Amino acid sequence: MLLESIAFIIATTLMYSAPLIFTALGGVVSENAGVVNIGLEGMMTLGAFVGAAVGYFANDAWIGFLAAGAAGGALAFFHALACVTFLADHIVSGIAINFIGPGLSLFLSRYFFDGATQTLSLSLDAKIPRPLNGVFEQNGFFDMVFNQYATVYLALFLVAFLWFILYRTRLGLRIRAVGEHPKAADTLGINVLRIKYLAVITSGVLAGFGGAALSVAIVSRFSSTLVSGQGFIALAAMIFGKWKPVGTLAACLLFSSAQGLTVYLGRGDLQRMLPMPSQLLATIPFLLTLAVLIGFVGKSRPPAADGIPYEKE
Amino acid sequence: MSDEKRKLLAASPLFFTFFSVLTGLLVGALVLLISGYSPLKAYHVIIDGIFSRPSYIVYTVIYSTPLIMTGLSVAFAFRTGLFNIGAEGQFIMGALGAALAGAFLHLPPVLHAIVAALAGIAAAAVWGGIAGFLKARFGVNEVIATIMLNWTALYLNNFIVTLPSIKRTATNATAFILDSARIEILPLWKVSEAGRTWRAMHPFWHDIFRTPFNAGILVALFLAFFCWWILNRTTLGYELRAVGHNADCSEHTGINVKARMISSMAIAGGLAGAAGALHVLGWTRQAAELAAMEGLGFDGIAVALIGGSSPIGCIPAGLLFGALKYGGSKLQFALRAPIEVVNIVIGSIIFFVAMPKLLRIIRRWLEPKKRQGGDSHAA
Questions:
Q1: pLDDT at B75 over 60
Q2: Angstrom distances, CA of residue B278 to CA of A242, B62, B96, B118, B127
Q3: How close, in Å, is residue B358 to chain A by CA atoms?
Q4: Is the model's pLDDT at A221 over the cut of 80?
Q5: Side-chain-side CA neighbours of residue B230 (13 Å)
Q6: B158 and A100 in contact by Cβ < 8 A?
Q7: CA angle A192, A198, A201 (to 5 degrees)
């Protein structure tokens, strides 16, 4: 019973972490290159819609997943255009993205799905597969924990991949240089604008993946309240993780475990034994983030030139 | 984000705003055109949906009322160098405070409404003040802090309204506010026997009384002038703006920068709280469990940006946004065109507002043309 409960909580935590990890890593890439991206929410929403819609019409979740990345990247291109080329205030442009992304998603949903603000469901076998299905004894501990959607493993792999890129390659060094001191990077012959564009568009692609990890894996359709705020939680996770991939992963797991706990404690049998207001549990990620910003959990510092438009002289 | 940028934004001239609004509307038209709807028809539906009946105009005003106030909230903070993304959470706290005070206090009419509104404003001022305090005391970026506080407010609201002693049976909302706290114009009379007979004889008013016509807009207009007055005619406002321009310099001239940051965010919170409170007292009469953000606070950011961060500018910007929202809501029925095109329009407007460099480029592009015109005249 106890073991089963633990397995249940770990499993739900992992499942809910994937969308956050993709999206938060997007934030890491963009902000390490000095572009604040509070538009993650909008890009994630568009990704969730495009993933579900393309997945439905193609009857293949992977095609939907890739299309979601493309859509997120396309939206991010406009954020880059505004922030990098036209020196827009990053926050304001991000807010615009957060109007346009969800607006466009619902617009297209109504257009393609007969006026409905939710898409039709993918058939069960067209969803993202669970690669380890049947490897372990069914409903055993390992089966419960590791029988996850492929997106979960992909997200975890991406953390390592991004860490490697940022800290072990020339490209990563350039990205971080641009985020810390664009002028110095420019003097050394790094193409600051190109790096920024690359980083912002990548962040959109990842946020799009994050949205699809929700809409074609955890559930099988897009609806108007599907994302509602997960992009902002991802943003919080990035800050909590101190703008670094591994820290961000830890924060995502922490935040999704709050979600996992909420689901677990919301089960009927437990609610009778130990009534725990799930709404209060849901505030944990946000209060923790405030705590880390205050410095209770170790000070976190953004890249030095994060959010400052760079104009070449 | 740099302070110069904020200042540039705050000072963005009327021309640029018109350009942005126009471009936003064009983007909307383009989106409609691509998806096979006639933009002309769509905008015709929207304009008809706003102006063709007295009740439509009143509804537009009712839709605009909270937007003007959340816009004021963002604009006020903006003028003092702070970015208040937290209007959404402050709106929720204002609505909650007013709904609780309206439902559970027993006071005479008018006084009850005032007390309930103040309860909402106070709750939201505290909520905004927290962000100000975190910024002043710990240097926490107010953008991130207010985003976190928004979601905390949402879940706190959901927790409180579903408490057994507070919620209305069989709903996920608080008990209705008492009639003494309502600010709707003659809400009881208009559905009474006498009211119905009178309305039958006055078709114009009959139409208007169909709507939850309320005193909120008067408060919104008052608050707009009040903000203008504070910012431009009081010592507090002068100090607040000084802090916004240059915090270090203000510190040296003896202004208590930290205290001013907190008061600025508390006032901004109170303004967004007023929006939530009057929304409840004038229309919804309850605070409900929220599945997602309602967006009236986020919309306030758009209003403030379109209004050039000036309190008075928030009035036309709020009316524009309210009109688009209300008029746009009729697209679905009339043309089966998705109403979300309105969000795309608003998003595009903000997008263009965000790019002051674009303005410079357009200016440069316009100027040689003028000169050319002058030359040909001379020749």
A1: yes
A2: 40, 10, 11, 10, 17
A3: 6
A4: yes
A5: 21
A6: no
A7: 135
Q: Tell me which chain B residue has its CA closest to the CA of residue A110.
A: B338
Q: What is the ipTM of this complex?
A: 0.89
CB within 8 Å of B224: residues ≥ 6 apart: B68, B72, B311, B312, B314, B315
The correct answer on CATH 1.10.8 for the domain covering B3-378 is no
Distance from CA of B36 to the nearest CA of A (A): 10
Packing angle, helices B111-138 and A284-294, rounded to 10: 50
Contact B305, A92 (CB under 8 A): yes
Tell me which DSSP letter residue B253 carries: T
Top residue of B4, B147, B150, B324 to mutate, by most chain A CBs within 10 Å, is B147
What single DSSP character describes residue B284?
Answer: I
* Torsion angles phi and psi, residue A155, rounded to 5: -65, -45
**What pLDDT was estimated at residue B333?**
87
- Tell me which residue has tokens 């990842």: A206
State the Cα–Cα distance between residues A257 and A110, nearest whole angstrom: 34
Domain boundaries, chain A: 2-294
Instruction: Say yes or no for a CB contact (<8 Å) between A293 and B144.
Output: yes
Any bridge partners for residue B184, and if so which? B214
| Residue spans per domain, chain B | 3-378
| A168 φ/ψ sector (left φ>0, alpha ψ -120 to 50, else beta) | alpha
DSSP result, B16-60: HHHHHHHHHHHHHHHHHHHTT--HHHHHHHHHHHHHSSHHHHHHH
Q: In DSSP terms, which residues pair with B174 in a beta bridge? A: B167
For A62, other C-beta atoms within 10 Å of its C-beta total 16
Q: Does domain A2-294 have CATH number 1.10.3470?
A: yes
Angle at A99 between CA A98 and CA A100, to 5 degrees: 95
User: Looking at this protein, which amino acid is placed at residue B201?
Assistant: M
Q: Which amino acid is it at B132?
A: G
Can you tell me the distance from the alpha carbon of A172 to that of A190, in angstroms, rounded to the nearest whole number? 12
First to last CA, chain A: 66
**DSSP conformation class of B255:** -
Candidates B4, B303, B351, partner chain A, best to mutate (most A CBs within 10 A): B351
Nearest residue to A105 (alpha-carbon basis) of A49, A42, A55, A44: A49
**C-beta atoms of A309 and B341 within 8 A:** no
Gap between the Cα atoms of B271 and B74, Å rounded: 9
- Give B5's contacts in chain A (Cβ within 8 Å): 87, 89, 309
What 3-state class would DSSP assign to B184? strand
| 3-state class (DSSP) for residue B214 | strand
Q: Are residues B274 and B121 in contact, defined by beta-carbon separation less than 8 angstroms?
A: yes
**A80 contacts in B (CB within 8 Å)?**
none
pLDDT of residue B328: 92
Using alpha carbons only, give the angle B53, B55, B57 rounded to the nearest 5 degrees.
75
Residues 245-284 on A with a CB inside 8 Å of B are 277, 279-280, 282-283
As a dihedral over the C-alpha atoms of residue B43, residue B44, residue B48, residue B50, rounded to 10 degrees, the angle is 10
Answer yes or no: do B351 and A283 touch at CB < 8 A. no
Per the CB < 8 A criterion, the answer to whether A281 and A265 are in contact is yes
Angle of CA points A304, A310, A313, to nearest 5°: 125
pTM of the model: 0.90
The answer to whether the CB of B74 falls within 8 A of the CB of B86 is no
The per-residue pLDDT for range B135-184, each reduced to its tens digit, is 999 888 888 899 899 999 999 999 999 898 898 988 889 999 999 999 99
CB-defined contacts A:B, below 8 A: 163
H-run or E-run covering A78: helix A61-80
B218-263 pLDDT tens trace: 999 999 999 999 999 999 999 999 988 888 898 888 899 999 999 9
